[in-house]
Amino acid sequence: MREALWDALKTVNDPELHRDLVSLGMIERAEVEGGVAHVKVNLTTPACPLKGKIEGDVRAAVLAVPGIEDVNVTFGAMVRPPAQPALPGVKHVILVGSGKGGVGKSSVAVNLAASLAVEGARVGLMDADVYGPSVAHMLGQGGARITANAERKMLPIEAHGIRFISMANLSPAGQALVWRGPMLHSAIQQFLKDAAWGELDYLIVDLPPGTGDVQLSLTQTVQVTGAVLVTTPQDVALIDAARALDMFRKASVPVLGVVENMSYFVAPDTGLTYDIFGRGGSRKLGGLPLLGEVPLDVEVRQDADLGIPAVLSHPDSPAAQAMRQVARNLAGRVSVQTLSSLPEQLPVV
Predict the structure, then answer these.
(1) Considering the domain 90-339, what is its CATH architecture?
(2) Binding residues for ATP
(3) Which residues form the MIP18 family-like domain (predicted)?
(4) Which residues line the annotated binding site?
(5) What pLDDT shows up at residue 184?
(6) For 86, what's the count of Cα atoms within 13 Å in the CB-facing half-sphere?
(7) Which helix (H) or strand (E) holds 214?
């Protein structure tokens, strides 16, 4: 019966990867005890957006095996690194860019990192906006100072389950950094390679606006899994987002999708929806996958000022729910991107 059980599991495909769970090495345990099948599935990310469908498909396939009366499906997760991992201990580097300021890029980056951490992933957040660092404030650690370990490696600060580094924690508050390109390049190198990030599934990088020195330094320094574009729906934001898209493509960085931030506003007193900046404009960006539409929500701004990501402070709000789904969709895209760099046949666990 064990062989029949494994044969049944070979008929169940991962909905995003389009290969069966057995050949993908996602089945950790499959055995039958007293007419009950026990199956453990190791997802490719703790933030798998289609976990429910996988469970339903496994149950249906296993219950079709003669002699099996019930099935107990449990889940684990193991984020697989690409063929060439980004950094020692860091599986995936994901850039969050916008092409222009004012679209809520840093807010999206912080809430993406927090969402992935809530799902159970090991997450780091690097604030690469050296001239205008805001991540530390958004995580409630604006006054913290970065220290070093015995190996003289920078120790990321930990907040809300996220390890992060920001220039705000290295320079005096309010002091402007008047740096040329080579100094920016040196700072990015230090953030990436002279920091004790430890074991991370995802390192989210909050980019500065534009397509300048920092973006170039990052793409030349580290193997990037992919990028996320953040935009608002109106044309003036999309024009610059298109430039950022062109930059990533020229740098051979896969663009995993777009987040339409401030996509709409729901009036709290009437429940009416207003498209303040238009809506759906992100679909004009070269056919990129839409990771999600995040509504304009005053609580997101308030939470950022208080130093608590909205997905933690107001998890049931429409904006937080949208951001959580964006994170799941992004994790799924990373898994698909990773599969393309792995061997066709993976070992069965």
Answers:
(1) 3-Layer(aba) Sandwich (3.40)
(2) 99-106
(3) 2-74
(4) 99-106
(5) 82
(6) 29
(7) helix 213-221
